[in-house]
Write a structure and sequence with these properties.
Elements lengths: L12 H12 L11 H27 L3 E6 L1 E17 L2 E4 L5 E6 L6 E2 L4 E5 L2 H44 L7 H41 L1 E3 L4 E6 L6 E2 L9 E4 L4 E9 L11 E6 L2 E20 L2 E11 L10 E18 H5 L13 H6 L22 E7 L2 E12 L3 E7 L6 E7 L6
Antiparallel strand pairs: 1-19, 2-11, 2-15, 3-10, 4-6, 4-9, 5-8, 6-7, 8-10, 11-14, 12-13, 12-15, 13-14, 15-18, 16-17, 17-18
Helix pairs in contact: 3-4
Length: 441
């Protein structure tokens, strides 16, 4: 009788499987500490930690800010005021006509030099000559009337004398009183007529003189020497005299001396005064500077677009006639000049240091990664106890650290400022800017 086979694994089954794997050439799995990927990961973490540590070390070393400095030095400083304006003749004359009429002849043109009394324009004198003839006739009539009235006065005077002599001889009996009064009244009327005739003669003479003056004014003459700047009349034009005469010519009395009219801002007018020197440039000659001198500073203001300015006149020598009226000029007025003074750049007065870089102190790697409290950048200014209200402060570099010093600034030209008092000395390094180091990546 046969027995059934057992299902339990025999003791040699594991070895059989191992032998099977061996026969199939499958390698046995390696232990974890022998695996290459584990050690590669560990090496990568170590390299990353070293890199972070190096980066933090470099950032700490480079976190200290650097400063841009400039040495305080002595020199000359000029306070200048810039203003724009136009060139004008010192005296401009507008020539018009007092009479109405037709232009017969024009004798000058633009840029012509003229002399006093020279005839510039001639009007048609025909009507004026006829008026003179009428005035002369009226004068002759008035003079004849004066002769007639004078004869009447003599006649009435003789009649009155005869009546008075008869009355004296007759003891007042003849002539009658009415006859005597009539004689006297007749003589007085004769005297009045003579006075009226004399007045008529004077009036006729005045009318004749006016007509003769008008005839002379029909030739328009130059009132002074000068140069013709503009001309607005041609032969044949009709000129109508009115309350406002039409300008026929514009004359400049002397182009060798011009006047520059500039408008000084209200913030600068306190620094500008008469006899200050100045210079200016014009677009026609950009490389040339012309000298000038202030001759007048107006008290009245001019407001343009809510900007308050004051008209200032500068005298200009133009002997070479290179400058022309109407040119636009940019003037630089020398308001103040200080020599051998202590100077610092304006950026030094505006500079205030700020804290930067990581917080001081240790803590290692973890501390460098954790946010710390904000740094205390408050510093006690050295000018806090200054005696004058004008005192300010600036920062100088000492042993690599910024130190505040009290100063009293003076005038400034927009780039440099004069230091008139305080603790600053020549050759000190004043700080003008601060640059924080950027951590390396």
């Amino acid at each position: 009788m046969s027995t059934p086979p057992s299902t339990a694994p025999s003791p040699g089954s594991e070895s059989a499987e191992t032998d099977l794997a061996t026969l199939l050439a499958e390698p046995a799995p390696a232990l974890w500490y022998r695996r290459r990927s584990v050690w590669c990961g560990v090496l990568a973490l170590l390299l990353l930690a070293a890199a972070i540590g190096y980066w933090l070390t470099q950032r700490s070393a480079n976190g200290k800010p650097t400063y841009t400095t400039q040495r305080a030095a002595r020199g000359d400083l000029t306070l200048s005021v810039i203003a724009n304006g136009t060139l004008q003749p010192t005296r401009t004359i507008s020539i018009g006509s007092e009479l109405s009429g037709t232009v017969l002849k024009v004798n000058v043109d633009v840029n012509d030099r003229i002399v006093k009394g020279q005839v510039l324009v001639e009007l048609d004198p025909s009507k004026l000559k006829d008026q003179i003839l009428r005035s002369r006739a009226a004068l002759a009539t008035a003079e004849a009337l004066l002769v007639q009235t004078a004869a009447t006065v003599r006649e009435s005077a003789a009649n009155l004398a005869r009546l008075e002599e008869v009355a004296r001889l007759s003891g007042g009996k003849v002539p009658s009183k009415s006859e005597l009064d009539t004689g006297r009244a007749t003589h007085e009327r004769a005297l009045a007529s003579e006075a009226s005739a004399r007045a008529g003669v004077a009036d006729a003479k005045a009318a004749l003189s006016t007509d003769e003056i008008n005839l002379d004014k029909s030739s328009i003459r130059a009132p002074s020497n000068g140069v013709v700047l503009t001309r607005s009349v041609e032969p044949g034009n009709a000129v109508a005299a009115s309350l406002q005469a039409v300008t026929l010519f514009t004359l400049a009395e002397d182009l060798s001396q011009l006047r520059l009219q500039v408008y000084v801002d209200e913030a600068d007018v306190g620094s500008v005064s008469v006899d200050q020197n100045a210079s200016f440039i014009v677009s026609a000659y950009p490389g040339r500077k012309y000298p000038a001198k202030i001759t007048r500073v107006a008290y009245g203001s001019t407001i343009t677009d809510n900007v308050v300015t004051y008209l200032t006149y500068l005298g200009v020598d133009n002997k070479d006639l290179s400058l022309r009226p109407g040119m636009t000029a940019t003037a630089t007025i020398t308001a103040k000049e200080h020599q051998d003074v202590l100077l610092v750049p304006n950026t030094a007065l505006r500079f205030t240091p700020t804290a930067s870089g990581p917080a001081a102190g240790g803590g290692g790697f973890a501390a460098s990664l954790m946010p710390g409290p904000p740094p205390n950048s408050a510093r006690k200014p050295a000018a806090a106890n200054a005696r004058t209200t004008a005192a300010k402060q600036l920062w100088v570099l000492r042993d690599g650290e910024p130190v505040a010093v009290a100063v009293t600034p003076g005038i400034s030209d927009g780039r440099m400022t004069e230091i008139v008092g305080g603790e600053l000395q020549a050759d000190m390094l004043v700080i003008t800017d601060q640059k924080s180091a950027v951590a390396k990546k």
